[in-house]
Each structure stands twice: as structure tokens, then as C-alpha cells.
Amino acid sequence: MLGGEVMNRYFDTLDFVAGRMPHDPSSTRGKKVLRQALAREHDAGPEANYIIRVWKEERGLKERLIVSGDVTKPRP
After folding, report:
1. How many CB atoms lie within 10 A of CB 34?
2. Of 6, 9, 4, 13, residue with least CA distance to 35
3. Interior CA angle at 15 toward 54 and 20, to 5°?
4. Which of these, 32, 35, 57, 66, has the minimum number of CB atoms within 10 Å of its CB?
């Protein structure tokens, strides 16, 4: 796990961006905006998804459940 000081910097960036974007942080577009901000400000790569997930847990944000298809009917 990343150190607390570094994570706080990431979280500050995510708080700033999330407070100014019109998208839900759990939406596809919202996650993309958050990933782009981490890449731009901190040079974060694939670890951005982990950082966002931890940030959401720390802030008490819920993951949006996505159900595709009709789950009430059994598949043939």
C-alpha cells in the first residue's frame, strides 16, 4: 500500500476534481475524469484505479451496481 502522505495528496486531487465535475464519481465518465486528473497531476498509471477505489472507501462513496440484460428470465 502507498504511504499516507502520498495518498493524502492523491485524495486532495480527487476531492478537488470530484467537487467540480458534473459526473457521478462512480459513472464511467466520472472515473475517466478522475483517472485523467491523477495522471496529469501525479503521473499515476494503472494504479489510479486502486487509488480511486481506496478514496471512495475513505469518503464513504458507494460503487454503482450495473446490471446488464434481463436477470429475471433464465437464459436458454
Report:
1. 23
2. 13
3. 135
4. 66
- The CA distance from 27 to 29, in Å, is 5
**Tally of domains within the chain:** 1
Q: How far apart are CA 11 and CA 73, in angstroms?
A: 42
Residue 18 lies in a domain: yes
**Residues of the domain holding 21:** 4-59
Would the pLDDT of 70 be above 60? no
pLDDT top residue among 24 and 63: 24
Residues 6+ apart with CB under 8 A from 13: 37, 38, 41, 42
